[in-house]
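DATA CLASS: polypeptide
GOAL: derive structure tokens

***
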Amino acid sequence: FPTLFPLGIGGFEDHWQFSAISLEAHVEYLFDQSGCEFQYHHFFSFVALNFIQRRKAHLHTTLWVSSSKFCNIAPMLLSVSPTVLLDLADKLKNKKDKSDFSDEELNAFQLLNNVNIIAAKIPGSQALKTATRNQICSYYGYFGLPHLFLTLNPSAVHSPVFQVMYGEDGVDLAERPESAYQRYLYVVHPQSEHACYVAKDAVAAADFFDFMYCIIFEHLFGWDFKTSKSTADGGI
């Protein structure tokens, strides 16, 4: 990226740096620069984020176990054949009882309980979605089925808050929210222009969603992110 690093310095994971900086932290820092060269570049965000994702995704088939169980798990892992795994997956899919499993299938099933798949930590992966869905179902089993469902969909296109993050001048957030929204939406800029801003600065859009998520949970639900607990006063 000669236009972003014209002097040939400031690149990623430079061993000449006094302190090591991770690729993820470096990219996040560059995206927060006020000059917006990195945010508005047509290719940098895609290449940088794809590189981060691929670095995590190469661990997709990596398995890890605790050191205390390694001596027992390693021989079992080497002895399992793909055929046994396919047969086991088919029986689990059909919800068959463990009594129907062969000795090899029982060993493979034990591996599933002891081995963690790193893919479950990769954002957007199917393994992470499955883990999240199981966690939600666990809440249902413990607390019971909720009586109220709330869907929150903050729109960056319609929000003066996003325009401030984008860097738009003339937005007064001290106004009454409804009047500021109406004036901004119909007078200051047309809605199509708002959508162009969102498309132009995806970093600001992501910051907006993160900000709204934190504000909603903090004030509406009374959640303290620092302690990961509800506040004593509760929310709105």
The mean pLDDT is 80.
